[in-house]
Design goal:
about 270 residues, about 80% helix
């Protein structure tokens, strides 16, 4: 799971290296297209085409739309703000996912988790640094987090009845087609260097998907989920080594609050299920 999170963080790093000259939709298209192609051999090796059958096309469609919007928002954010700033906000996905699970899944949330949601939202506000100038990129990171949190309950619905490979495959191909619809309006022909970076995003994204799938096969989600918070360490490492940028106190404080509340929500959910 640590390797998977490092790969996903590397994807964001490559998008930041590509820069704002290229629209995030174009980055989403190439990243998901390459990942979709590279996952085909794994699909054929683990069950063949029969595992791609689904009776939940509607849920796949909702998950695709929310996932693509989330990725576009995230990629825009990482093109304009430090990786650590964006990921400090992105780590709040479990907090908002718990909130959205109430109307979408009909889950009941007790007072302990409600308090964690409120405290976690405070951590997000600190990470946004409302006393200073709130950057547009940070707002896009928040939007990406909200859309991804909406997608999570639908991913859980799909995961209850379908193979992880089925979920990943349908999302990658559907999201590629969705991004392709908007390409004519935002297309900028990539240079050779940018094309290499696009290929890198797809390659590390594929490795990340495979590693996360195996992590979920080898251990319960309650065991591996806390390792998702290692993304802030990857972000700080990339910021320091590539851009010489160190995270602000508010970013670290907000990230710390979000991390603690997210882990507490995970603990309460695990205890509740037991």
């Amino acid at each position: 799971m640590v390797v998977a999170v490092g790969c996903f963080a590397s994807t964001n790093m490559f998008v930041k290296l590509i820069g704002p000259t290229y629209h995030p939709v174009e980055a989403v298209f190439f990243r998901n297209l390459i990942t979709a192609v590279l996952t085909v051999p794994f699909i054929l090796s683990f069950g063949g085409l029969r595992i791609l059958k689904t009776r939940r096309a509607g849920i796949h469609a909702i998950r695709t739309v929310t996932g693509v919007i989330s990725n576009v928002c995230y990629f825009y954010a990482y093109q304009h703000v430090a990786l650590a700033d964006g990921m400090a906000i992105a780590m709040s996905v479990p907090i908002f996912a718990t909130l959205f699970a109430i109307p979408l899944l009909g889950e009941k949330v007790g007072r302990h988790r409600w308090m964690a949601i409120i405290v976690g939202f405070g951590g997000v506000l600190i990470a946004l640094n409302p006393q200073g100038d709130i950057q547009t990129g940070s707002l896009f990171a928040l939007a990406g987090t909200l859309f991804w949190a909406v997608a999570m309950p639908y991913v859980r619905m799909l995961g209850a009845t379908e193979s992880p490979y089925t979920v990943v495959f349908h999302y990658m191909w559907a999201s590629t087609l969705m991004a392709a619809c908007f390409l004519p309006f935002v297309w900028v022909t990539p240079t050779t260097q940018v094309m290499i970076l696009y290929l890198a995003t797809g390659l590390v994204g594929t490795i990340g998907q495979i590693c996360m799938t195996y992590a979920l096969k080898l251990a319960p989600a309650s065991i591996i989920s806390p390792f998702e918070y290692t993304k802030i360490a990857w972000a700080i490492l990339f910021d320091l080594t590539l851009w010489g940028a160190s995270p602000s106190v508010t970013t670290l404080l907000g990230a710390g609050i979000v991390m603690v509340t997210g882990l507490y929500i995970l603990y309460r959910e695990t205890r509740h299920r037991k």
